[in-house]
Predict the 3D structure of the following.
Amino acid sequence: MLLLLLSLVVTANAAPQFFKNYHARGTVSLPYAEIKEPFEAWFSQSLNKSRIDVYGGMVKNVVDVAAGATYKVAHMTNETATNVLTCFETKFDAGDEVDIQGILPDTSLGFENAGSAMINGQECDKWVLSDTPNGTHLTQTYTLYTVNEQPVQFIMEGYNIISGSHVDKYVIDYSTYTNGDNFTEEMFSEPYSKLDCGGFPGPGHAGLQSDIFADIIGGVHDHQGNFKEFKAKYEKMYNDKEEHGDRFAAYRNNIRYI
């Protein structure tokens, strides 16, 4: 009986484990910047594919590890066309370590139970993980709120993963979350299957890709290391630290949109 009670206590204090395949909707917010945008996500470990639609479906991002490529579909305007639905395909390079992109944190990283709290009108279990990104002295705090292993809200507070400087806050609110074991290949290829996909007009490649969900969920990417490789490959030289900082900021933001 004592062993049974102990096992129940351990289970009760263990962070929730999410579906290997899931569909979710919600919003991602940057409260300090007063930005709030909806998203819809499909995530399948079984198919090794992911898809995240943002801005009400105006931009669709697909990672297809099996095909060795990422796809971004959006309406684009340039010198010759206006608001044309366009597909950008980025092939993986040899040696790239690219994974499908979810919108839920990996709870096996060490989230600890921190009691409960009222979130969005629900009594939620609270799970917390703290981390100090490489090369910084600032701590990031990740807080996950769940009800019966259903995600309600995820918050990252700390090192600014967009500007790489001051403290900031990012919030993901989940409105729906369901099992995705019945996903088909077509759910992931639908955004680009009838389009002629071309290369992305900018620096970087799939192996260095980044997006706001990857940074919020998984912490800071090694943008400094990647930028160093980029400078060496293209023999980039800058006049001073100020120009270097400006170029690095532009590089990081370009990578985020690949």
Notes: The mean pLDDT is 79. Helices lie at 2-12, 186-189, 212-218, 223-234, 241-256. The two ends are 55 Å apart (CA to CA). The first strand starts at residue 21 and ends at 30.
